[in-house]
Design brief:
Low-confidence stretches of chain B: none
Shape of chain A: globular
Radius of gyration of chain A: 13 Å
Number of helices of chain B: 0
Strand content of chain A: over 45%
Oligomer: heterodimer
Number of helices of chain A: 0
Largest sheet of chain B: 6 strands, mixed
Number of strands of chain B: 11
Largest sheet of chain A: 7 strands, mixed
Chain lengths: 115, 113
Amino acid sequence: DTEVTQTPKHLVMGMTNKKSLKCEQHMGHRAMYWYKQKAKKPPELMFVYSYEKLSINESVPSRFSPECPNSSLLNLHLHALQPEDSALYLCASSQEATGYNQPQHFGDGTRLSIL
Amino acid sequence: SQKIEQNSEALNIQEGKTATLTCNYTNYSPAYLQWYRQDPGRGPVFLLLIRENEKEKRKERLKVTFDTTLKQSLFHITASQPADSATYLCALDELGGGFKTIFGAGTRLFVKA
C-alpha cells in the first residue's frame, strides 16, 4: 500500500464532462505534485504546490485546474478534456519542495480515458 | 534545459547476475540524482538518492554511483531476482523557477529465472 492515496483509480469521461481527481497524504509533507504519464513515457510534471500555494505550473492547459484545499489534500479539476489527455495521472508528495534531499512519494495514479 | 538519457529501453538478464542500468544527463550537474522503481499500473517508488559530493550509495542489493565528470549515474542490482523485474527511472533536479524533478524514460528490466 502507498502512503499517497488517489481516487478514483479509473475514470472514463466524455469531452464535455466535468470531473475531479483527488489525492490525499497524511505524512505531514508540505509539497504536493501532479504528474501526467503516457504509456512507456516518464512522468511529466504538471503542477507543484508548496505550503498550499501553487509554485510551479508547467504551462498546463486551463482545462486542468489544480486546487489544494489543505496541506493533506490535492485536487485536479477536469473540464472539456481532449482524447490526447488520456493518461495516468500521478500525485506525489515530499517533505519540502526545495529540491535538495527530497524523494517523492507517489500514489498509484488515476487512469483517465477520454471518449 | 536538462536532458536525461537512459541508454537501454530494455535489459534482459539471468537470475543471480548483476543488472547495471545507466543514466546520462546533459548540461549542468544536478545537486542530486534519484532512482525510482515503477511496476505496471503503479506509481514510481523511491529507491535511492545520491548527492553530487557522494561517489557511491548502497542499500541492500542496490548500489548507485554518480560521476559528475562523465555526467553519469550507474544503478546496480546484485544477485538479481525475477521480483526485480520492473521499470527503473532516473530522476534529477532542474533549476529554474524553483526546483523541479525531471525523469528519464526508464529502463525496463526483465530478470529470467
